Amino acid sequence: MAWLGVASPLLAQGSQAFTLPDTATVIGLSPQAKHLRFGEASPTPVAAFEAGDTLPCPQCNPKKHFWVAVAEVMAVNIIPNLVSRSSGAEWAKFSLKTWGDNLTLPWQWDNNAFLNNQFSHPYHGAMYFNSARTNGYNFWQSAPWAFAGSLTWELFGEVWAPAPNDLANTTLGGITLGEMLYRVSSLTLKNEATGFDRVVREVTAGLLDPVRGFNRVVRGEAWKVSRTPPEWRQSTIFGAVDVGYRRLTVTGEGVDENLDGVFVTAEVIYGDPLLDLSKKPFSFFHAEVTLASNNEPARRLTSLEVRGSLAARKLGNGGLNQLAGFMTYDFIANPVIEFGGQGFAFGPVIGHRPSNGPRIRAEFLGQFMPVAAVQSDYYLTAEGRDYDYGIGLGGLANVSVAWAGLAQIGLYGRYVFEPIISGFPGNHQLFFTGATGRIYWKGRIGLGADFNVLRRWSNYYGRAEVSRKNNELRLYVTTSIPQWRD
Amino acid sequence: MRRLRVLLLLATAGTAGCADSVITVIQPENDRTITVSGDSISYIVTDMENVTQTDTFTWNNPAERLTLLHQSFLPHGYGLLVIFDAVGTVVDSTLLEYQLTTYSRAGVPGTWTILLIYSSAWGRAQFTLVPLVGEPPPAEARVPSVVEMPAADRRPTSGAGALAAWAKETDEKRRGR
After folding, report:
1. Does residue B114 lie in a domain region?
2. Which of A269, A279, A419, B161 is the most exposed place for a label (fewest CB within 10 A)?
3. Dist. CA B175–CA B127, nearest whole Å
């Protein structure tokens, strides 16, 4: 599960030096930045770019383009509207009257399918966010743009009644996904690059962050040689791909079945999960996406989880212990638990990194999601909505121990309580527990095994309580990027 | 002063909403039309503005199921469609949807009753019912899972709680008749 990934062996190296392989250039690190030392203060990014010091760096302090950002937010709304309108969609044919109706009539929770509301809307929000982020605004300054973009879409971009769930999903999910995509696209960019290497980098960045790609082409930044802003790099970056076998065992009233299949998980850990928490928002983030074969086709995207740091304050004198805040994005879709939420997590993060021996990291976070979606047993619409909406309250605990370059084990638990606001009256309780272990050999290649238990208890007014349990076993080969060396 | 003007504008826009709170029923200008074409039947009501009422009609279905072709467009409020077979059993209960095809559960052929429940509905209610012989196409397996829920567990879908209670009460009255 996502919460365990932040303590991979690579990140447990403490002060041991490691060398990035050639693949480092793929993720945007310059050759000068290949020899990094983890566990110390981040290397001065400027020093890593000495070779480019003589070049100008117009993007180091980017100028704010307010009206361009406004135009892009409008374009992000108008383009999908025009496409829908050209195909005859009535809901896209807005007028002054429909604007008036949307401004004056009550808002309504909508009945879109899970993927649409929990993934597509947040991705749309990421584009609003990046309309500002890639026009010179920082994280905090860009956040309101996601809200404004979503609000204008709800009120003026479609004829349907504005939906409170859409506004929340798009705004909060858009900020989290938007900043994550912005930073990952920054990793791929290298302003000093030329030729085919430059083309590949620009195209990749544009796919990850289309608004940014558009801006770079329009401004000529996509081909201009200049210095890469140090902010676009991070002291530590870790990527991993797990491929393997997955067995889901589903149990509950009248249900007992096994589902076997294969899965692929891609994971990015950006920044140091302890040292970077107190830096700028999302100086540390963890993103993990899983595609699996044994879900129904609409749920091949089994999970997408992102958690980025917002701020942190040290606990006590020195040490690594901190009180930290995060923004979270959850999308989990499997036969037992369909869960989506965007919100915040807050609590102590504890780390212990001795010069020799295993490194320990633990966190105990409370979580608040203004709007969360949980699979429903009774709320089912022809349009495809099969989940209830409510406020998500809960917490998570995560403990991991890692031996540098050798192995990692971890335990986690998570609880979510959702009183239902829209859907079938009642409440849901989710309980996630799990254990993971990985052993590495030959540097970047390792083997891993996870065992997760997902439980859902759903209580409904006037209807039977529903309990479902899902055991998940994963056995996989894992490969890490960059390669770890002793 | 400028800020005050903006506030006044917003306040005016806000109070304008109160003007739309008048509950209405279907009027002649809404062109309520029911058309029988062979074994099929079509229903349309246009330009509803804040309609809250029930509407009902009957239809002779020679088959055990029906195909429901949704063509409604209700941007605000809700329209709920409840279908009873010849012996009064609910075979479908669904929101009026925009461009969607769904299928009913199996029922007893004969005179079926169509009940519509509008709650603050704005827009157009429109659908066509077509007799369906045999099983629904497998490709639509997800939609039947909605309508094949046991009757005791089925509920009117979204909308206010009062709407749900009303539909249940109506159902019970009809069964007791």
Report:
1. yes
2. B161
3. 25
Facing residue for A382 by CB, picked from B14, B143, B155: B143
**Among A149, A184, A219, which residue terminates a domain?**
A184
Q: Is the distance from CB of A131 to CB of A72 less than 8 angstroms?
A: yes
**CB A26, CB A211: distance < 8 Å:** no
User: What dihedral angle (degrees, nearest 10) is formed by the CA atoms of A51, A55, A60, A62?
Assistant: -160
**Helix/strand/coil (H, E, C) string of B81-101?**
EEEECCCCCEEEEEECCCCEE
Contact in structure between A409 and A437 (CB atoms under 8 Å): yes
User: Strand, coil or helix: what is A93?
Assistant: coil
* CB-based contact, B20 to chain A, within 8 Å: yes
Q: Choose the closest CB to A382 out of B20, B73, B102.
A: B102
A286 is a domain residue? yes
Q: What is the CATH number of the domain that holds A370?
A: 2.40.160
Vertex A161 angle, CA A160 and A164, to 5°: 125
Residue A274 and residue A162 share a domain: no
pTM above 0.90, yes or no: no
A438 and A205 in contact (C-beta within 8 Å)? Answer: no
Q: Find all residues with CB under 8 Å of A169, minimum gap 6, and list them.
A: A117, A118, A121, A122, A125, A340, A342, A371
Establish if B142 belongs to a structural domain.
no
C-alpha–C-alpha distance, residues A237 and A190, integer Å: 16
Same domain, A129 and A259: no
A230 close to A28: Cβ distance less than 8 angstroms: no
Quick one: A370 and A244 in the same domain? yes
Residue A71 lies in a domain: yes
Residue A249 CB: number of other CB atoms within 10 A?
16
51-110 in chain B: CB under 8 A from chain A: 70, 73, 75-77, 94-95, 97-98, 100, 102
Q: Which of A154, A184, A214 is the last residue of a domain?
A: A184
Q: Give the residue numbers spanning the domain of A163.
A: 66-184
**ipTM value of the model?**
0.77
Walk along chain B (177 residues) and give the pLDDT tens digit of each residue. Answer: 455 565 555 555 554 444 456 889 999 999 999 999 999 999 999 999 999 999 999 999 999 999 999 999 999 999 999 999 999 999 999 999 998 999 999 999 999 999 999 999 999 999 999 999 988 876 543 333 333 333 333 333 333 344 445 555 555 554 554
Count the domains in chain B: 1
Q: Is residue A420 part of a domain?
A: yes
Residue with tokens 């056995």: A475
Residue B12 belongs to some domain of the structure: no
Residues on A contacting B at a C-beta cutoff of 8 Å? 90-91, 98, 100-101, 103-106, 108-109, 111, 159-161, 378-385, 422-425, 463-464
